[in-house]
Design a protein that fits this description.
- The structure is a single chain.
- The protein has one domain.
- Helix content is 71%, strand content 0%.
- It has eight helices and no strands.
- The protein is globular.
Length: 179
C-alpha cells in the first residue's frame, strides 16, 4: 500500500512539473494570475448580488444555497489542509514565486474547491450556464498549478470536494427557505 502511495505521489509530481513548464506562457502573459484571482471570494459575492438584483428566476434559492455551502466549505477545506499538511510545490522549488499563497499547505486547493462548488451551484439554479461556469472552474484549477501553488491532485481533490458539497446542499435545500 505504501508503494502505491509513493507511485501516486511520484506521478503527481511528474504531472505537476510537466504542467508547470507547459503553462509558462500563461504565467508570462499574466493570464494564469488573473484566472486564479477570479476564484477569490469577493467575486462570488458580487455574482450572487448581481443575480439577486437582476431577479433571475431561482436567484433567491441560489443565494441561500451559496451562503449555506460556503459556510460549510470554508471551515472544511481549512480543516483538511491543516490536518493533511501537504507543502505547496513552490516550497520545494528554487524558482521565483509568481503568486504568494495565503497559507503554507496545498491539499486540497481552496480555489478549486470554491470554484467547482460555485459552478455546481450556478448550474443547479441556471443550467444554461453550465459550459461557461464549469469551463471557468477548470481554468481556475489549472491556473493554480500553472502558478506553482498546487499539485494536480490538489486541484482534482478540490473539484471533487466542491462538487460534493454543492450536491449535498442542493439535496438539503431543494426549495427556497422562507420565514
Amino acid at each position: 500500500m505504501i508503494s502505491l502511495f509513493k507511485r501516486l505521489r511520484a506521478f503527481d509530481e511528474m504531472t505537476f512539473h510537466w504542467l508547470f513548464h507547459t503553462t509558462r506562457s500563461l504565467r508570462k502573459s499574466r493570464l494564469a494570475f488573473w484566472l486564479s484571482r477570479s476564484g477569490d471570494g469577493p467575486y462570488y459575492a458580487l455574482f450572487a448580488l448581481l443575480a439577486g438584483v437582476a431577479a433571475f428566476e431561482g436567484s433567491i434559492l441560489f443565494i441561500q444555497r451559496a451562503l449555506l455551502a460556503f459556510a460549510l466549505e470554508i471551515p472544511l477545506f481549512i480543516a483538511l489542509k491543516n490536518l493533511l499538511r501537504r507543502d505547496r510545490p513552490i516550497l520545494r522549488r528554487k524558482e521565483k514565486v509568481v503568486l504568494k499563497p495565503a497559507d503554507r499547505f496545498s491539499f486540497p486547493s481552496g480555489h478549486s474547491t470554491a470554484a467547482f462548488l460555485f459552478a455546481a451551484l450556478v448550474v443547479a439554479s441556471f443550467p444554461v450556464w453550465a459550459p461557461l461556469f464549469y469551463g471557468w472552474a477548470a481554468a481556475v484549477a489549472i491556473s493554480r498549478v500553472a502558478l506553482g501553488v498546487h499539485y494536480p491532485s490538489d486541484v482534482v481533490a478540490g473539484a471533487i470536494l466542491g462538487t460534493s458539497i454543492a450536491a449535498f446542499i442542493v439535496t438539503l435545500l431543494p426549495t427556497p427557505f422562507t420565514l
